[in-house]
Design brief:
about 170 residues; mainly beta; Immunoglobulin-like; 7-stranded antiparallel sheet; 4-stranded antiparallel sheet; 11 strands; globular
């Protein structure tokens, strides 16, 4: 029986290897939560951005190189998510610092939120936020983590967003 213990690890290890090699351990389209049914896609600076909003939920979040299980933030009304793929090969870009700069287009109120890598039923960068009803614009800023995945040259410097999306919260 001891000789068969490796078989118990084979499937999770193969799934992890497929994720690391192919960058794809996710459904082909993200699900949108019941609060908002919005999904937008843009291609800019060599990256494909898939943006959506869902209800906050418990998920795995990357924290200092470790996946940790976190509950939704207190008072959060939405989980804002963006999946960033290399437009050349479709691989998920996880080794980056991602920020969302939110502006309420009606009140002009603005705030910024870091989007760590998250995993629930898919992998993405995202954050829980509290959004009141209104129209919003979000600018996505991406910065490469130094020393990781060198050769990818399409990260920006935080002065200008790489992609922008507008959405309405009801």
């Amino acid at each position: 029986m001891k000789d068969n213990h490796w078989k118990l690890l084979a499937v999770p290890l193969l799934a992890l290897a497929a994720f690391l090699i192919e960058g794809q351990l996710m459904p082909t389209s993200p699900r949108a939560g019941p609060k908002e049914d919005q999904l937008s896609t843009k291609v800019a600076s060599g990256m494909k951005f898939m943006f959506w909003i869902q209800e906050p939920e418990e998920m795995q979040v990357m924290n200092q190189g470790q996946w940790i299980l976190v509950k939704p933030e207190e008072g959060a009304t939405h989980h804002v998510a963006v999946r960033i793929l290399d437009s050349r090969n479709g691989h998920f870009i996880g080794y980056a610092r991602v920020y969302g700069n939110f502006v309420n287009l009606e009140t002009k109120e603005a705030f910024q939120k870091e989007f760590p890598a998250c995993f629930s039923n898919d992998i993405h960068h995202g954050a829980d936020v509290s959004l009141s009803p209104g129209r919003y614009r979000i600018g996505i800023f991406v910065k490469r983590i130094e020393g990781v995945r060198e050769g990818v040259a399409f990260y920006n410097d935080y002065r200008h967003p790489v992609a922008e999306f507008e959405f309405r919260v009801r």
